[in-house]
Amino acid sequence: MAEVAVALSDVTLIFSDANGDPVLAVDDVSLEVPQGQFLAIVGPSGCGKTTILNMLSGLINSTLGTVVKNGEVVTGPSMDVGYMLARSALFPWRSARRNVEMPMEIRGVGKAERRRRADELLDMVKLGDFKTKFPSQLSQGMRQRVAIARTLAIEPKLWLLDEPFSALDAQTRITVQNEFLRLWENTGSTVILVTHDLSEAVLLADRVIVMTARPGKIKLDQVIDIPRPRRVDDLLDNEHFMQLEARIWKELRDELV
């Protein structure tokens, strides 16, 4: 059995709305994710998907229950977690290289070493010729690949991805998804992806969790038994992929009101 990377035990999250009234966002969720697994979480808007990522990252604390990462209770942000959002969130005044260097700079890595590593990572995401370009000079797909390289720079044991490909056009999305899979499959890191795109969840993940409408509970926990390595564009007309997607959609559609 693989070591458990993260675990939520009887986790509940209650927050206050604009009027100060309590809102039950996540209700009694328990979940274990083995090291190296790619987990996707889908569900209707407001069901607590991003809230779960924020609890795992240590940005917010659960109201009840425990959140554990690598055997330790999460009490705050950690340096070994990579968090990627829908937008690349690059610093506009820094070049692609300097953006990738940023997390290493924070960790005190020397200038020569962080430049070497940044150049290596940009080569890996096929942006070696764009190292000195600024975000405004890059396409959205290129900016998102810089964000992937920046996250890889910290060699995270856990990737938290919140709709990281949603801002991309369909063709660019497939390219960046394939690039991400190629890089991730060599790391052994754990990935938890939040997405509204059911096809994306099935194409990328080893396992898909379906959440109910608020308050968020786990409705379905589905293994995705599609062999790796994968290429997204090779699976779009795969019969087994379509069967899995249909099975999950049957559970998800009743929550979309």
Describe it for me?
The strands form 2 sheets. A 6-stranded mixed sheet has the order 6-7-8-3-9-10, with helices on both faces. It is built from 8 helices and 10 strands. It is globular. The longest helix has 15 residues, at 170-184. The protein has 257 residues and is an alpha/beta fold. It has 2 domains: 4-80 and 158-255, 3-Layer(aba) Sandwich (Rossmann fold); 91-155, no CATH class. α2 (96-106) packs parallel to α4 (140-152).
Overall outline = globular
SSE run? EEEHEEEHHHEHEHEEHH
Distance between termini? Answer: 39 Å
Our Rg estimate from Cα atoms comes to: 18 Å
Number of domains: 2
| Helix run count | 8
Largest sheet: 6 strands, mixed
Q: CATH superfamily of the largest domain, called what?
A: P-loop containing nucleotide triphosphate hydrolases
Please tally the β strands and state the result: 10
**Strand content of the residues, in percent?**
15-25%
Mean pLDDT: 91
- Under CATH, the topology of the largest domain is which? Rossmann fold
Helix fraction by DSSP (H/I, runs of at least 4): 25-40%
User: Strands of the biggest beta sheet: in what spatial order?
Assistant: 6-7-8-3-9-10
Segments where pLDDT lies below 50 for 5+ residues? none
Which structural category fits the helices and strands? alpha/beta
User: Which CATH top level class of the largest domain fits?
Assistant: Alpha Beta
Name given to the CATH architecture of the largest domain: 3-Layer(aba) Sandwich
